[in-house]
Input
Amino acid sequence: MIISFILLSIMAVLILVFFTYRCQTRFFYRETAWYGKEIPGEWVCMDGDILKLHKTSKSTYKNNVYYFCSEECYNYMVMHFTKTAMVRDAISGDLINKAEALIGLKEKGKPELVYFKNRQTMNMYYEQRKK
Output
């Protein structure tokens, strides 16, 4: 009787985690597993600088590819291009275009993004964070 209840409880938890909340479970996985690695652009909103739950839309503007979660974010970037599309490298401080930058997570387990000019500055950033 107790074993049946335990198995039923385990099944309920597994169904909730892997079926009902599968998007949130995968998002939690990406927030932790992608720390220290380059994040594919299709998973970020470059206007809000955050990792998104679902894939984002790819848009081309001024011959560069950007990713946005909504049309409002795209329109905001077009209206405020230098403020939104340009960002400083986390290590060197150089001004870079988000479309040409490498993208990483700022902290493990959090959706905020950080941008890098090249793989060297990306590696330096995560090496400094290990200490």
